C-alpha cells in the first residue's frame, strides 16, 4: 500500500488492458471469445477457473468479483464470473465457464475471491451446477430437502415438493451439545428483535464472546429472478425491483433494471428524464439511510430510543416528496424504459418549494443526530473499534456501498461508472477509514448531506428547464425484442451498494436469464469477519451497521 | 421544624382507633402496611401502562394513549384486564418451583423496602411504617434480594437468552451494589445514624441562608459528587438505561423475562417499577431531604411524590436518549471506576467530617 495521497501517481497501478492483451495474458486458458455488451468475455475450461481468476486478479488488477451468474442452456450449463476493478469499475471482463450438460461440475473460484462462496452456493441451489473444491457446497436459499433446481430447464414446478416432516431440517432443533468444549450454541433469529427481518444467525458463544457466527438466509426468498424472467421487458418487470430493497429505496432498484435493459435495447434516455431520475433516486437514498440510522440506534441504544422516531420522522418527509412525485410511498413503479412515467406534479412551484423546505431543515436535523447519537460518549465506546472490516477483506468479499466506503475504499458507481445526471453535478464521494461500526454510520450520515446537495442542484435545473424540452420518455417500441443471445451486466449505486442486473435475451420479449446482484447479499457475507471474537452486543451492532434488507438478500 | 417527629403510621392507628394490646398492634401494622403497599402499587399502576407511554411519546414527538378515557387514563384498567386475561404459557422443561417463585420475589423484595422509607405526611398521618435503628442498612438488604429473583428466573426458564440475562444481572449487581452502599456510607458519616428519620432530620438543618430564604442541608447539595455517584450506581442497581443490559431486548431478546407471559409477566413488570420507585425513594431519603419541602409538614407526602416521580422521569429520559453500554464495559466502569471513586469519596468524607467535627 502506498502512503501517498490518492491523487499522486501510484507505482502499483496496473495499466488498463485491451481485450486482446487480456487474451494474450491468459494464453492457452482461453478457449473462445464470448463478448457481452458491457465487457469482453473469455470462455475457459471448467477446471481452470481458479487459475484464470487469479491471473486476472493478480496480474491484470481485476480485484472485484461483482457477480457470479449461472444458467442452463439446451446443450450446456454456464457460470459467468463478472469481474471489475475497484479503481475503475468501467474496466470489466467476463469469465464464461461452460459445464457439461450431464455432469455439470465446475471448479470453484472461492480460493481467489471469498465472495464466490455464497454466489456459487446460490448457483448450485437454483441452477444445479456443482462447484468442485468449494468449501461448503450446500443449498443457500432453499431448504435442504428441496427436490430439483428451480432455474434448471427440466424443472417441473407443478410437481409438489414432497418431503416427510421429519426430513425437514428444523434449524433450531439441534442441541449441539459437546462435552469437550465450554462453548454454547445460540440461535439468534429467525425471529429476533435485531435481525432486521427473518435472518437466522447460528452463533457459537464462549461466555459472552462470539466464537463463530454463520448466517442462514432464504426465509424471504420469493423467486424474484424467475418472476422477472416471466415478464415482458417493456412494462411487466419494472414493478418488481421496488420489492427487493423495500426500505424505500425503490427508485434506486428500478434504475438498476432500467440501466441494464436500456443498454440491452439501446435506448437513449432524454436528459430531462435523467435529471428527474437522479433527483428521485437521491430522495430514496436519504429515506433508506434515515432508516439505517434509525434501526442502528435501536440496536445500540435500546428499543425505546428517541433517535428512531426522529429519523423515521425525517424519512416520512422524504416519502411525502416521493409520494408527490410518483404517486406512491413505497412501491413506486415510476421509471419506464427510456424515461419516467410522468412529469413532476403540478403546480411545479409547490413541489419545488416543498422540496427546498425539506432541504433547508435537513442540516439542522443532521446536527441534532450528531448531538444525540454520534457525539455521545457511550455510543462512541460502543461503536468505535468494534466490527472491524479491513479494506482488503471487504474487497475480497465483494462488499460495496457504505460498508466498503466505511473501510476507506473510494468506490462509488455514481462517480466511477457514471450514469444518469451525476457527472454533471457537484457532489463528493464520502469515505471514512475507521473500518468500524462508527465509520459506516458516519458515511451514511454524510451521504445524506451529499444527496441533499444533488437534489438541490436537480431542483434548480428542473425549475429552469425550458417548457418545450421537457421530454420524459424516449420513443420506445411497445414491444421490446432485443437481439438473440445478447448479454449485458450493468450495475448502479443503490442505497446498500452495487446493485447489478445481468440479462440474457433470446430474441423474445422476455429475458431468458435475469440475475440480480444484490449488495446486501455480498455485504452480509462479511459478518463473521466482523463478529468473530467480539461480544454479542457487537455482533448486533455489526449486523445493524451492515444495514441489510432481507428482501434484497433473499430476493 | 423543631417539632418532635410525628408518630409512625401503625402507632397513629393504634392511638386513633384505640386498638388494645398486642393484637391491636398487629392489626394496626397490617392495615398500615396495606395502605402503604397500595400507595406504591398505585404509583406503578399509573407509571406502567400510562405515564411511561406518555413520557416516551413526549420525548419522541408522539401522542401515545389518548383514546380511552380522559388523557387516555382508562388505559390503566384496560391494560390490567388485558394482561391478566392472557394465557399463562409454561414452557417445557422449566424448573417449576424456581420459575414460579421468581416473579413473586421481585416485587415482594422491592415492596419490603418501603417498610422503612419515611414517605411524609398527609395531614396528621405520617406514612412511615417502621423506623428501626438499622433502617438504612435494611433497605439496601431488601433491594438486593431482587438479584436473587433475576437469577432464579434466568436459571429456571430453561432458555439460553434467559440464562445470559440472569448471568448479566448477577455480574451487574455485584459490580454496582458495592459502590452504591459505600457511597451511601458517606451519608451515614455525615448523619451519624442509620435511622431513616435521623438521616432525614439531619438534612433539615439550614446549609446557607440567601436573602432570608433557607437552603436546607440536603446531602445532594453538601456533597454533589457523592450524589452523582449514587445516582449512577442506582441506575445500574435498578437496571435502567444505560445499564439495562440484563434485559437488552435487541441483544438477548428480554433476558430473564423472555419466557414469562400473562400474570407472571405482569408481576415482573410490577417488580421492576416498584424497584424504580424504591430506588427513587432511597435517593430522596439519602440525598434530597426525604419528604421535606416548602410548606407545612402536613403536605410533605406531596414532596415525596414529586421527588420519586422526578427520579422516574429521569430513568425514562435516559431510556430515550442514552445508548446501552456493553457488558464488559459495564463491569469495567463498576469495578475499576465507581468502586475506586466511591472509596475515595468515603475516605474524603470521613477525613472532612473528622477534622471539622
From TrEMBL, chain A:
- A single Pfam family it belongs to is Complex1_30kDa
Q: Which UniProt keywords apply?
A: Cell membrane, Membrane, Multifunctional enzyme, NAD, Transport
Main subcellular location: membrane
How is it placed in the membrane, per its record? Answer: Peripheral membrane protein
SUPFAM superfamilies in alphabetical order: HydB/Nqo4-like (SSF56762), Nqo5-like (SSF143243)
Concerning InterPro entries, the annotation shows:
NADH_Q_OxRdtase_suD (IPR001135), NADH_quin_OxRdtase_su_C/D-like (IPR037232), NADH_UbQ_OxRdtase_30kDa_su (IPR001268), NADH_UbQ_OxRdtase_CS (IPR020396), NDH1_su_D/H (IPR022885), NiFe-Hase_large (IPR029014)
According to the UniProt record, one GO cellular component term is:
plasma membrane
Q: Which GO terms describe its molecular function?
A: NAD binding; NADH dehydrogenase (ubiquinone) activity; oxidoreductase activity, acting on NAD(P)H; quinone binding
So what does this thing catalyse?
a quinone + NADH + 5 H(+)(in) = a quinol + NAD(+) + 4 H(+)(out)
Cellular localisation: Cell membrane
Q: List the Gene3D superfamilies.
A: Cytochrome-c3 Hydrogenase, chain B (1.10.645.10), NADH:ubiquinone oxidoreductase, 30kDa subunit (3.30.460.80)
- Residue limits of the NADH-quinone oxidoreductase subunit D domain? 305-555
What domain of life does the native source organism fall in? Archaea
Instruction: Please state every residue range assigned to the domain named NADH:ubiquinone oxidoreductase 30kDa subunit.
Output: 43-160
The cross-references to NCBIfam families, in alphabetical order and at most eight, read: PRK06075.1
Quaternary structure per UniProt? NDH-1 is composed of 13 different subunits. Subunits NuoB, CD, E, F, and G constitute the peripheral sector of the complex.
Member of which family?
Answer: In the C-terminal section; belongs to the complex I 49 kDa subunit family.
- The name of this protein is NADH dehydrogenase subunit C /NADH dehydrogenase subunit D
Q: Which organism does this sequence originate in? A: Halorubrum vacuolatum
Automatic annotation (TrEMBL), chain B:
**Is Metal-binding there in the keyword field?**
no
Any one Gene Ontology molecular-function term assigned to this protein's record: NADH dehydrogenase activity
Transmembrane annotation, as ranges: 26-51, 63-84, 134-155, 175-194, 215-236, 266-288, 300-317, 337-356
Any GO BP annotation = aerobic respiration
Which Pfam family, any one of them, does this sequence belong to?
NADHdh
Question: What keywords would UniProt list here?
Answer: Membrane, Transmembrane, Transmembrane helix
Output the InterPro entries linked to this UniProt entry: NADH_UbQ_OxRdtase_su1/FPO
Listed name of the protein: NADH dehydrogenase subunit H
The species is Halorubrum vacuolatum (Natronobacterium vacuolatum)
Amino acid at each position: 500500500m502506498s502512503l501517498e495521497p490518492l491523487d499522486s501517481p501510484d507505482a502499483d497501478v496496473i495499466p488498463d488492458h485491451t481485450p486482446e492483451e487480456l487474451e494474450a495474458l491468459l494464453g492457452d486458458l482461453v478457449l473462445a471469445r464470448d463478448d457481452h455488451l458491457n465487457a469482453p468475455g473469455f470462455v475457459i475450461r471448467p477446471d481452470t477457473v481458479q487459475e484464470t481468476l487469479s491471473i486476472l486478479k493478480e496480474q491484470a488488477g481485476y480485484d472485484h468479483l461483482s457477480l457470479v451468474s449461472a444458467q442452463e442452456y439446451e446443450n450446456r450449463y454456464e457460470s459467468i464470473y463478472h469481474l471489475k476493478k475497484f479503481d475503475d469499475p468501467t474496466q470489466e471482463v467476463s469469465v464464461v465457464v461452460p459445464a457439461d450438460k450431464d455432469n455439470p461440475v465446475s471448479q470453484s473460484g472461492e480460493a481467489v475471491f471469498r465472495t464466490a462462496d455464497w454466489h456459487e452456493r446460490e448457483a448450485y441451489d437454483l441452477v444445479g451446477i456443482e462447484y468442485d473444491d468449494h468449501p461448503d457446497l450446500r443449498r443457500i436459499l432453499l431448504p435442504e430437502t428441496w427436490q430439483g433446481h428451480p432455474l434448471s430447464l427440466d424443472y417441473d414446478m407443478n410437481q409438489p415438493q414432497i418431503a416427510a416432516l421429519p426430513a425437514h431440517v428444523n434449524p433450531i432443533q439441534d442441541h449441539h451439545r459437546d462435552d469437550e468444549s465450554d462453548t454454547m450454541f445460540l440461535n439468534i433469529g429467525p425471529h429476533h428483535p435485531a435481525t432486521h427481518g427473518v435472518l437466522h444467525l447460528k452463533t457459537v458463544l464462549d461466555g459472552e464472546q462470539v466464537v463463530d457466527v454463520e448466517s442462514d438466509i432464504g426465509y424471504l426468498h420469493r423467486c424474484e429472478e424467475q418472476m422477472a424472467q416471466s415478464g415482458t421487458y417493456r412494462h411487466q418487470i419494472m414493478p418488481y425491483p421496488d420489492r427487493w430493497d423495500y426500505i424505500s429505496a425503490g427508485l434506486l432498484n428500478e434504475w438498476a433494471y432500467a440501466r441494464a435493459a436500456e443498454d440491452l435495447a439501446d435506448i437513449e434516455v432524454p436528459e430531462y428524464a435523467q435529471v428527474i431520475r437522479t433527483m428521485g433516486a437521491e430522495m430514496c437514498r436519504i429515506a433508506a439511510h434515515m432508516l439505517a440510522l434509525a434501526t442502528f440506534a435501536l440496536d445500540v441504544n435500546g428499543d425505546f430510543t428517541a433517535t428512531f422516531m426522529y429519523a423515521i420522522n425525517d424519512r416520512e418527509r422524504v416519502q411525502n416528496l416521493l409520494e408527490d412525485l410518483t404517486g406512491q410511498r413505497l412501491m413506486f413503479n415510476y421509471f419506464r424504459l427510456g424515461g419516467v412515467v410522468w412529469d413532476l406534479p403540478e403546480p411545479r412551484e409547490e413541489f419545488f418549494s416543498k422540496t427546498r423546505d425539506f432541504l433547508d431543515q435537513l442540516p439542522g436535523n443532521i446536527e441534532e443526530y450528531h448531538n444525540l447519537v454520534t457525539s455521545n460518549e457511550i455510543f462512541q465506546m460502543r461503536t468505535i473499534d468494534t466490527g472491524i472490516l479491513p479494506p482488503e477483506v471487504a474487497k475480497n468479499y465483494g462488499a460495496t456501498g457504505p460498508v466498503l466506503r466505511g473501510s476507506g475504499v473510494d468506490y462509488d458507481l455514481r462517480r466511477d461508472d457514471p450514469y444518469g445526471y451525476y457527472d454533471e453535478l457537484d457532489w463528493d464521494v464520502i469515505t471514512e477509514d475507521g473500518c468500524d461500526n462508527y465509520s459506516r454510520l458516519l458515511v451514511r450520515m454524510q451521504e445524506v448531506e451529499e444527496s441533499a446537495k444533488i437534489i438541490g442542484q436537480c431542483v434548480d435545473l428542473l425549475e429552469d428547464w425550458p417548457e418545450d424540452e421537457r421530454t420524459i420518455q424516449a420513443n420506445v417500441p411497445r414491444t421490446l425484442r432485443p437481439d438473440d443471445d445478447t448479454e449485458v451486466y450493468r450495475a448502479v449505486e443503490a442505497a446498500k451498494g452495487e446493485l447489478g442486473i445481468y440479462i440474457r435475451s433470446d430474441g423474445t420479449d422476455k429475458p431468458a436469464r435475469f440475475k440480480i446482484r444484490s449488495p446486501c447479499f455480498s455485504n452480509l457475507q462479511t459478518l463473521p469477519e466482523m463478529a468473530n471474537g467480539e461480544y454479542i452486543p457487537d455482533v448486533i451492532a455489526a449486523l445493524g451497521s451492515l444495514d441489510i434488507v432481507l428482501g434484497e438478500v433473499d430476493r | 421544624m423543631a417539632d418532635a417527629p410525628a408518630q409512625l403510621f401503625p402507632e397513629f392507628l393504634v392511638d386513633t382507633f384505640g386498638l388494645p394490646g398486642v393484637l391491636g398492634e398487629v392489626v394496626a401494622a397490617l392495615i398500615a402496611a396495606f395502605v402503604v403497599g397500595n400507595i406504591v402499587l398505585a404509583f406503578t399502576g399509573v407509571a406502567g401502562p400510562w405515564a411511561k407511554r406518555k413520557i416516551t411519546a413526549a420525548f419522541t414527538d408522539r401522542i401515545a394513549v389518548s383514546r380511552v378515557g380522559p388523557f387516555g387514563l382508562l388505559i390503566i384498567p384496560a391494560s390490567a384486564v388485558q394482561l391478566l386475561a392472557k394465557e399463562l404459557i409454561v414452557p417445557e422443561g422449566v424448573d417449576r418451583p424456581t420459575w414460579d417463585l421468581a416473579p413473586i420475589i421481585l416485587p415482594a423484595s422491592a415492596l419490603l423496602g418501603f417498610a422503612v422509607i419515611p414517605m411524609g405526611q398527609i395531614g396528621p398521618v405520617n406514612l412511615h411504617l417502621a423506623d428501626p435503628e438499622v433502617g438504612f442498612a435494611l433497605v439496601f438488604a431488601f433491594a438486593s434480594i431482587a438479584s436473587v429473583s433475576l437469577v432464579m428466573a434466568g436459571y429456571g426458564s430453561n432458555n439460553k437468552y434467559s440464562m445470559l440475562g440472569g448471568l448479566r444481572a448477577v455480574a451487574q449487581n455485584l459490580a454496582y451494589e458495592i459502590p452504591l452502599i459505600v457511597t451511601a456510607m458517606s451519608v451515614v458519616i455525615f448523619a451519624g445514624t442509620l435511622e431513616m428519620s435521623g438521616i432525614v432530620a439531619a438534612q433539615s438543618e439550614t446549609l446557607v441562608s440567601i436573602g432570608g430564604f433557607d437552603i436546607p442541608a440536603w446531602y445532594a447539595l453538601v456533597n454533589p459528587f457523592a450524589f452523582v455517584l449514587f445516582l449512577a450506581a442506582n441506575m445500574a442497581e435498578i437496571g435502567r438505561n444505560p445499564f439495562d443490559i440484563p434485559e437488552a431486548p435487541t441483544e438477548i431478546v428480554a433476558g430473564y423475562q423472555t419466557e414469562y407471559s400473562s400474570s407472571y409477566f405482569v408481576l415482573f413488570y410490577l417488580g421492576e417499577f416498584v424497584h424504580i420507585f424504591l430506588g427513587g425513594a432511597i435517593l430522596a431519603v439519602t440525598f434530597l431531604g426525604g419528604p421535606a419541602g416548602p410548606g407545612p409538614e402536613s403536605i410533605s407526602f406531596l414532596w415525596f411524590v414529586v421527588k420519586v416521580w422526578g427520579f422516574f422521569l429521569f430513568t425514562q429520559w435516559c431510556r430515550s436518549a442514552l445508548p446501552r453500554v456493553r457488558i464488559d464495559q459495564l463491569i469495567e466502569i463498576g469495578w475499576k471506576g465507581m468502586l475506586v471513586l466511591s472509596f475515595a469519596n468515603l475516605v474524603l468524607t470521613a477525613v472532612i467530617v473528622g477534622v471539622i467535627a
